[in-house]
Write a structure and sequence with these properties.
The protein contains 2 helices and no strands. By secondary structure, it is mainly alpha-helical. The longest helix has 31 residues.
């Protein structure tokens, strides 16, 4: 971030870092999705 002067797009410019960010986002969604689904089932079941 110091080299990029605070510009966050530096993480998306390179294919390797963009791929790693995409993998992290997918893993995060896969981790959160079951909890959201479970809470929706509980809300609709009542």
């Amino acid at each position: 971030m110091l080299l990029a002067d605070g510009d966050f797009t530096v993480f998306l410019r390179r294919p390797i870092s963009a791929t790693l960010l995409a993998i992290v986002a997918i893993l995060f969604l896969l981790m959160v999705f079951p909890a959201i689904r479970r809470s929706r089932k509980e809300a609709l079941g009542e």
